[in-house]
């Protein structure tokens, strides 16, 4: 396939948005600045906890895509994938999507999105001659199907220290609802690691990188990424941007200028013993595979976490027993 796509994979708060932002200004790439969820919009079965859905044969892709775009157009939450409120031009795209019916295949779905982008975001320009870059958190589950549809595609899967990822995702989910149900946080991370383990053994163009390595030595890692994608390394790959404008990130620790390793170890001061012990007991194989230090079992798991209601406290502690 000419100009095969690039798919960025990884769990929520693992560094996927940062990686996408570092590819944003590369002249050979056409980076979609939001999660399209195009496979889910095609009615696929999704197990990822925060995007869970059952299979749906009676879908209309264009209608679901339009609803997704409207949500992005109305969102102002800095910690979400990206803030596009007051930027997306939905009028022309709506006219096209209302006429575009019967999209069934991933190829046709991605092509439609590619064709829509200049209408949605005129500053993005035309995609001709460029490789589309797309990232959606649940696509690790569909990587085999994506590989089947796009055999020349490249996949980049980013992982973060499971302890740190647990804290970041929990903080992200706590901001609106208080301390969350811990099973959804854990299941989301486990889902990503499970499909990573399967995908990397089967899909040929599948690169795995660690968030910590990217944050500490971005030039080295982005040079590796450019070699993997067979594109020329560009200095812009060291500056996070969205639509070629500086991007301050969607970190759980606030705005960050550029790439920073400042908060890599902050999780050590913020992780609750119940969270840490879940990772230590159940994801030790992940820690070992990616070279992360395994923590000792911590005391204090019965202490309520900040913002944890009584009902959620009971649910979360019994869930820990369930995983034994």
Notes on the structure:
The structure is a single chain. The protein folds into 2 domains: 6-246, Rossmann fold; 267-322, no CATH class. Helix 3 packs antiparallel against helix 4 and helix 7 crosses helix 8 (182-202). The protein is globular. The model has no long low-confidence stretch (mean pLDDT 92). The chain has a 5-stranded parallel β-sheet with strand order 2-3-1-4-5, sandwiched between helices. A two-stranded antiparallel ribbon has the order 6-7. It is 45% helix and 8% strand. It has 14 helices and 7 strands.
Helices and strands in order:
Blueprint: E1 6-9, H1 16-23, E2 29-31, H2 38-41, H3 61-74, H4 90-99, H5 106-120, E3 131-135, H6 143-149, E4 154-159, H7 162-177, H8 182-202, E5 206-210, H9 211-216, H10 218-229, E6 241-242, E7 245-246, H11 267-270, H12 273-282, H13 284-289, H14 310-322
Parallel strand pairs: 1-3, 1-4, 2-3, 4-5
Antiparallel strand pairs: 6-7
Helix pairs in contact: 3-4, 7-8
Quick synopsis:
By secondary structure, the chain is α/β, with parallel strands linked by helices.
Q: Which key features would you list for this structure?
A:
324 residues, alpha/beta, Rossmann fold, 2 domains, two-stranded antiparallel sheet, 14 helices, 8% strand, globular
């Amino acid at each position: 396939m000419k100009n095969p796509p690039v798919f960025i994979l990884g769990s929520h708060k693992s560094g996927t948005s940062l990686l996408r932002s570092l590819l944003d200004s590369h002249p050979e790439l056409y980076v979609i600045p939001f999660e399209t969820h195009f496979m889910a919009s095609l009615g696929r079965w999704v197990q990822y906890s925060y995007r869970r859905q059952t299979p749906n044969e009676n879908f209309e892709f264009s209608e679901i895509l339009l609803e997704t775009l409207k949500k992005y157009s109305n969102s102002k939450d800095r910690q979400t994938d990206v803030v596009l409120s007051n930027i997306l031009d939905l009028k022309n795209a709506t006219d096209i999507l209302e006429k575009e019916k019967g999209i069934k295949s991933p190829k046709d779905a991605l092509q439609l999105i590619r064709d829509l982008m200049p209408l949605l975001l005129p500053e993005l320009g035309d995609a001709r001659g460029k490789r589309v870059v797309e990232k959606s958190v649940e696509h690790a589950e569909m990587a085999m199907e994506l590989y089947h549809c796009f055999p020349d595609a490249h996949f980049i899967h980013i992982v973060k220290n499971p302890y740190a990822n647990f804290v970041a995702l929990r903080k992200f989910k706590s901001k609106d609802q208080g301390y969350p149900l811990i099973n959804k946080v854990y299941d989301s991370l486990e889902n990503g690691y499970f499909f990573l383990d399967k995908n990397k053994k089967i899909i040929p163009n599948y690169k795995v990188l660690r968030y910590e390595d990217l944050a500490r030595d971005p030039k080295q890692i982005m040079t590796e990424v450019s070699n993997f994608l067979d594109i020329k390394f560009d200095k812009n790959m060291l500056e996070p941007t969205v639509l070629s404008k500086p991007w301050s990130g969607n970190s759980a620790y606030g705005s960050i200028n550029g790439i920073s390793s400042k908060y890599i170890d902050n999780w050590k001061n913020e992780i609750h013993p119940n969270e840490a012990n879940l990772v230590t007991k159940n994801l030790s194989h992940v820690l070992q595979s990616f070279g992360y230090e395994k923590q000792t079992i911590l005391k204090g798991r019965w202490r309520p976490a900040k913002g944890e209601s009584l009902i959620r406290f009971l649910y979360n502690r019994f869930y820990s027993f369930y995983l034994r």
